[in-house]
Amino acid sequence: MRRKEDQKSPTADGQRPLFNRIAVLRTERQLSRQQLAEAVGVNYQTIGYIERGEYNPSLELAFRFAEVFGLPIEAIFSRQPLRPLSEELYPRPPKE
Amino acid sequence: MTTRSLRPSRPLITIERVVAALVVLIGFGLLASLQVFDAAFLYLLFVLATAFVVRSVDVEPGAWLGLRLVRRALVVVIALITLDFLTMRTTDFINVGIALLVLLALGDLALGRATRRIATADADRIDERQEALRNRAHRIAYAILAISVGLVLLIADVATPGTRRWLADSLGGGGVVSLIQLLFFSPAMVIAWIEPDRIADVDGSRMRRNLRARIAYGMVTFAVVMPVLMSLSLAVAPSRVSAFTRPEPDFVTPNGTAHCSYFDARTQAGIGFGATTRITAVACWDGRSAFEEWGLNSSDCYPYRAEFVTATTIECRRTMEFDGSLHFTYRTVVRSAILPFVSREVVMTLNLTKDGKVVQFP
Hints:
The complex is a heterodimer.
Chain A: E1 19-20, H1 22-28, H2 33-40, H3 44-51, H4 59-69, H5 73-76, E2 77-78, H6 85-89
Antiparallel strand pairs in A: 1-2
Chain B: H1 15-33, H2 39-56, H3 63-66, H4 68-86, H5 90-114, H6 128-158, H7 161-170, H8 174-194, H9 211-236, E1 240-253, E2 256-269, E3 275-285, E4 290-295, E5 305-306, E6 309-320, E7 326-336, E8 343-352, E9 358-360
Antiparallel strand pairs in B: 1-2, 2-3, 3-4, 3-5, 6-7, 7-8, 8-9
């Protein structure tokens, strides 16, 4: 079965949606949207829209996210649906 | 964290509150001067009560205008007022134009808050998403404006002499207000329309669906819908007519004794927001002719009551026929100030024969 994220609609400006882990990383670091927004220099609404896949950030902004979270860009953003981090750390054993 | 802490405490007297109080006072004054103190007064009280209930709901500041539904309702209201100005005649502009102008200014203020003035913001005050949104809104707004204004001018100029006259009139009346509104505020209207629901800083703090919030929702919906329904009643609800006559003392004329009657009739069009037209007169007859003792003059042809409507007299005529009968006709068009395409023609007539027989009233 396809996951819900696979069926994301294009963003408001018609671009292909970009999948991201910002909501997970933000929660993990106990940051509010406002705090993260101040860290990367945008309005907190923009954080919400990026989390929901309704806005694709510029390359400049994507790099700022990478700096704030201390992760490579490809760990935060992807063209393909992202697997949960726990699944990447502890992959399920293949079914017999 | 309690919900109360979401709203920061503010001093009792702030510049916003002083301005709001002044606006309310001016609004009351305007309504009083327009003789619209019945339904309009009650509606204004309801709006104030709604504002009080909305303010008492614990939400993140700006949450109401962050809802796309509320923003779209605001855009519709502003568009209707703009349309109203476009179709308004110069005389109507003098009567209801000021009140509508105040409403439009309040709507534009709310629109600015709802969109955080992104439409006119400098690039250093907004981020890249807001800048993209602003640019997109400008493209959409001015494309729509150019096409619609161009089409209206083209059609009005080539259609009929009446539309050409309307075109010339609208440049001197409410049409200018409409044009200014669309020129300067249409990008903000587009942003208010297309931007999704605003997102809360802290998840779940945006709008709690408790009982008070539901009541507030209901009151806001009612406050927006009620004027529209009341304006539609002008076209849908039948006119209510009441009339009575009573004998007046006789008096002697060179032709003999004249018998007189007092005539009083009212026609109500619309429910709440509507108009009442009235005929009051004393008319007499002496067997050779019927005539008025007082009333039935051109100065009597004005609406007795008009609330959020404009009443334009198109006929006010008194004639004495060859057979000695008296005819009086008062014809007026009552047009909604909120929905200018909704109107109703009201006709009141008094036909009295030389023998005192009332053929038609009202």
